[in-house]
Design goal:
- Helix 7 crosses helix 11.
- The C terminus is likely disordered.
- It is built from 13 helices and 4 strands.
- Helices cover 50% and strands 6% of the residues.
- With 322 residues, it is mainly alpha-helical.
- The radius of gyration is 45 Å and the shape is elongated.
Length: 322
C-alpha cells in the first residue's frame, strides 16, 4: 500500500502532465463492445450461443456429433421441421400401468423380433410397479393375459408335445386323477381294498382297481391312450356294482366318480385327441359328454356280463345280485 501511494505521488495525472507540456487533455474513448471478450458458450452441435451440446434445450440434443455446424450452417439458421408425425412408441408407462401399442406390437411380431422387443421393454420398466398390462388400440385397452398364454403355448409347444406324446398324455391324465382324488365321492376308491377288511372281496372281484393304482400307472407313463384310462374308471364302477349291487351307496358313488371323470376328460378333449392320434390310437370321446354317458350304460352292462361269465367258471364262487 505504501509503495502504491508512493508511486501515485511520483507520477502526475494525465491532465497535469498535458498542462505541464503545454498540451490539452483528451478524454479516453470507452472500449468498443467488440473489444470486450465474449464469455458466452457456443454450442458445437447447432452453433447457437448460450448453451453447450450436452444441454437438453439444444435442438440437436441426443443426435450425436454428426451434422454439427457453426452459426452460419443451415441447421443453425433454419428452424427444424416439426410437421412430421413421430412414430408411435411400442410401450409407455402411465402411473402403474404398462401401455403397449397394439399396432407396433403386431409389426414387431411380424418382423420376427418379438423376443428382442420383450427383453427391451422388460429391462426399461424393471424398476416400476406394474399391476396391469394393456394394449393401446384406439383408446381401447385389451387384457394381455389371453395373448400371452397363446404366445407361450403356440405351435412350438405343440410340436414339443408331439415329440414325446406318451409323456404329455400321462401328465394330463395324472392331473385329471389329482382332481378326482379331491372329490368326496372318491373316498371309497382312493386305496386298494384290504383283504383283511373284506375277506371275500378278491374271490368275487377278479380285476380290482383304485385311484392310487391308476396314479402309479400315470407316474410310470404306462397309459398309452385315453381309452386305457377310461377303462380303469369303468372297472372301478363295475367292481362296485358286481360286489355291492346296483343300488348300494358305494355303487352310486362309483357312478358319480365315473361321470365326473368323463367331464374332466372332455375339458382336455382337444389335447387328448391330438395325443391319441400321435400314438396311433383311436379317439373314444363322443361329441358331447351327455352322449358319452348314454353310451357308457351299454358298455358297463357288457363289462358286468363278462365278469359274471368269468365268475361262473369257478364252482366255489356264488355270483351276488345276479
Amino acid at each position: 500500500v505504501r509503495r502504491a501511494k508512493s508511486n501515485s505521488c511520483k507520477q502526475p495525472s494525465t491532465a497535469a502532465a498535458a498542462a505541464a507540456f503545454g498540451g490539452t487533455s483528451t478524454p479516453q474513448a470507452p472500449a468498443s463492445p467488440s473489444a470486450t471478450k465474449n464469455t458466452k458458450f457456443k454450442c458445437s452441435a447447432c452453433g447457437q450461443a448460450g448453451h453447450m451440446k450436452t444441454n437438453r434445450k439444444c435442438p440437436k440434443f441426443g443426435m450425436g456429433d454428426g451434422g454439427s455446424g457453426g452459426a452460419d450452417s443451415p441447421a443453425a439458421t433454419q428452424p427444424s421441421s416439426s410437421n412430421a408425425t413421430p412414430a408411435p412408441m411400442l410401450s409407455s408407462v402411465e402411473g402403474t400401468r404398462l401401455i403397449i401399442n397394439k399396432q407396433r406390437l403386431n409389426e414387431t411380431l411380424r418382423m420376427g423380433s418379438s423376443s428382442q422387443a420383450s427383453s427391451s421393454s422388460t429391462s426399461r420398466f424393471a424398476g416400476s410397479k406394474r399391476t396391469v398390462m394393456t394394449l393401446d388400440d384406439d383408446d381401447n385397452d385389451m387384457d394381455l393375459d389371453d395373448e400371452i398364454v397363446a404366445m407361450n403355448r403356440g405351435q412350438q409347444q405343440r410340436d414339443r408335445d408331439l415329440k414325446r406324446p406318451e409323456i404329455t398324455l400321462n401328465n394330463i391324465l395324472n392331473g385329471v386323477l389329482a382332481t378326482l382324488r379331491k372329490l368326496p365321492e372318491a373316498v371309497p376308491f382312493l386305496l386298494p381294498v384290504s383283504e383283511k377288511t373284506v375277506a371275500d372281496y378278491f374271490r368275487i372281484v377278479l380285476h380290482p382297481m383304485d385311484l392310487s393304482s391308476m396314479q402309479e400307472r400315470a407316474k410310470a407313463m404306462a397309459f398309452r391312450s385315453t381309452g386305457e384310462f377310461l377303462q380303469d374308471i369303468r372297472q372301478i364302477a363295475c367292481n362296485s356294482r358286481l360286489y355291492n349291487g346296483p343300488v348300494h351307496e358305494v355303487t352310486q358313488l362309483a357312478q358319480a366318480l365315473k361321470r365326473r371323470a368323463i367331464y374332466e376328460l372332455y375339458a382336455q378333449r382337444e389335447d387328448l385327441e391330438r395325443l391319441d392320434d400321435a400314438l396311433g390310437q383311436e379317439a373314444i370321446l363322443a361329441d358331447t359328454p351327455e352322449q358319452m354317458l348314454e353310451d357308457e350304460l351299454e358298455v358297463e352292462e357288457q363289462m358286468l356280463q363278462a365278469a359274471r361269465e368269468e365268475l361262473s367258471g369257478q364252482s366255489t364262487v356264488s355270483i351276488p345280485y345276479d
